[in-house]
Amino acid sequence: MTTTATVAAFDLDGTLTEGGSVFEWLGHVAGHRQTYLAATRLAIPLVIGGLRSGPYADRAKERLFRALLTGRSEADVTDESRLFAHAHLEAKIRPLTHDRLRWHLGQGHDVVIVSASPELYVRVVAEEVRAHGALGTRLAVDPLGQLSGGYLGHNCRGEEKMRRLDEWIRARHGDAAVTIYAYGNSRGDRRMLRGATFPFDVGHLGALGALRHFPRLREAVPTDEPPA
């Protein structure tokens, strides 16, 4: 089958931007003091989730969301998330990966942000960098338009990240063969990178990082097609 399209998938936290964004976002929408207190109460599951990753991390993150977001208006949180995303992107964007993203756009490739962060603000980031799509963790909303604090579906990491990306690609390109570039920085991105034609590690740890077996973006020439 002839390849008809190219897709470039970028993780957000630690890849397109420096560091994490979820705690900063929660502090913005729920208050920094409330976020600190909730994180303190959930310190043990959050630490275990950070160390063990996988379902442990997913459940700990959802517990924090429930503690801080339950009953909040989706419309209000969406508005606050837009303000947060603009400020966060301006302060934390990484020139290396942003340049790579713009290169893909210049080549006419489809660009999509794929993140475990809430899709409420991943969409705004995607708009700002002119990406064609945004995939993130979706939050459940009740019939009154209030957040339940839980996920709608699954946390968008690991297998779910690749599943969502595949779904997005099929929606745009059907069954056509697609070349996939993928950029990530942590073990939550491993499945997406394994599913890519051209995977790249953009983390700071290099040989010590979870993606050390993948090519490093710093070793690629941004204007050249990476070797197969």
Structural class: alpha/beta
Number of helices: 9
Distance between the termini: 18 Å
CATH homologous superfamily - what is it?
A: HAD superfamily/HAD-like
Spatial strand arrangement across the major sheet: 3-2-1-6-7
Which strand-content bin applies to the residues?
Answer: 15-25%
Shape annotation: globular
Q: Provide mean pLDDT, rounded.
A: 92
Helical content band: 40-55%
The radius of gyration computed from the alpha-carbon positions, rounded to a whole number of angstroms, is 17 Å
Name its key features.
globular, 46% helix, 228 residues, 7 strands, Rossmann fold
Written overview of the protein:
The chain is α/β, with parallel strands linked by helices. The chain has a single domain, classed as 3-Layer(aba) Sandwich (Rossmann fold), CATH 3.40.50.1000. It has nine helices and seven strands; from the N terminus they run E-H-H-H-H-H-H-E-H-E-E-E-H-E-H-E. Helix 7 links the parallel strand 2 (110-118) and strand 3 (133-137). Helix 1 (22-30) packs across helix 2, helix 3 (43-52) packs antiparallel against helix 4 (54-69) and helix 5 (74-92) packs across helix 7. The chain is globular, with a radius of gyration of 17 Å. The mean pLDDT is 92.
Outline of the structure:
The chain has 228 residues and is of the alpha/beta class. 46% of the residues lie in helices and 18% in strands.
SSE diagram, text form:
Blueprint: E1 3-10, H1 22-30, H2 32-41, H3 43-52, H4 54-69, H5 74-92, H6 95-106, E2 110-118, H7 119-128, E3 133-137, E4 139-141, E5 147-151, H8 159-173, E6 177-184, H9 190-194, E7 198-201
Parallel strand pairs: 1-2, 1-6, 2-3, 6-7
Antiparallel strand pairs: 4-5
